[in-house]
């Protein structure tokens, strides 16, 4: 439980250290992400990490697994872009795919380092989503540093 709660706290502290203001919207995003985690992120990561990425890692190694899983993970976010101009969709999807692959590297590292904890990977996903509202580069930095801190704390 402590490791799970350490992830959003560490991400918020890192985000604040990089200049993000810990105002009500960011804190509300954390609470909202934690509230939907059992309904969205936990099941999403059960499929993505627990089935796709874990099996690909065993068969092809962590790099191939992260890239392939990241592309699948990014592409199934395409429906969120519906209704946007085609140019905006292309740019958004390019950014999403790059971030998805990077997030899958971090998620794979966390999964392996925690003995296969889907819950902590779902917490990573929820934390990234919450911090993402403060800026994409900041979200990526804060999430990676928070995972590093969690891995150090967890063992």
Question: Can I get a quick summary?
Answer:
The protein has 155 residues and is an all-alpha fold. The protein contains 7 helices and no strands.
Describe this structure in words.
The chain has about 160 residues and is mainly α. Helices cover about 80% and strands about 0% of the residues. About 30% of the residues are buried. The model has no long low-confidence stretch (mean pLDDT about 80).
How are the SSEs placed, and which strands pair?
Elements: H1 2-17, H2 24-36, H3 41-60, H4 62-75, H5 86-113, H6 118-132, H7 136-154
Determine the structural class based on helices, strands and strand pairing: mainly alpha
Mean pLDDT: 81
The amount of beta strand, in percent, is under 5%
Q: What pattern of helices and strands is seen along the backbone?
A: HHHHHHH
- Shape annotation: globular
Gyration radius (Cα, Å) is 15 Å
How many β-strands, per DSSP?
0
Share of residues in helices: over 70%
Q: Mind summarizing the main beta sheet? A: none
- The unreliable regions are none
Number of helices: 7
Distance between the termini: 14 Å
Keywords:
7 helices
């Amino acid at each position: 439980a402590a490791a799970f709660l350490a992830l959003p706290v560490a991400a918020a502290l890192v985000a604040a250290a990089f200049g993000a203001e810990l105002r009500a919207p960011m804190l509300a995003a954390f609470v909202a992400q934690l509230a939907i985690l059992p309904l969205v992120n936990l099941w999403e990561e059960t499929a993505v990490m627990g089935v796709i990425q874990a099996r690909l890692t065993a068969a092809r190694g962590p790099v191939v697994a992260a890239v392939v899983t990241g592309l699948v993970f990014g592409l199934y976010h395409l429906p969120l872009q519906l209704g946007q101009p085609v140019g905006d969709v292309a740019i958004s999807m390019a950014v999403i795919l790059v971030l998805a692959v990077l997030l899958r590297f971090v998620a794979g590292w966390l999964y392996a380092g925690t003995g296969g904890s889907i819950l902590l990977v779902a917490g990573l996903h929820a934390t990234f989503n919450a911090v993402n509202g403060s800026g994409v580069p900041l979200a990526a930095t804060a999430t990676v540093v928070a995972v590093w801190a969690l891995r150090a704390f967890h063992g």
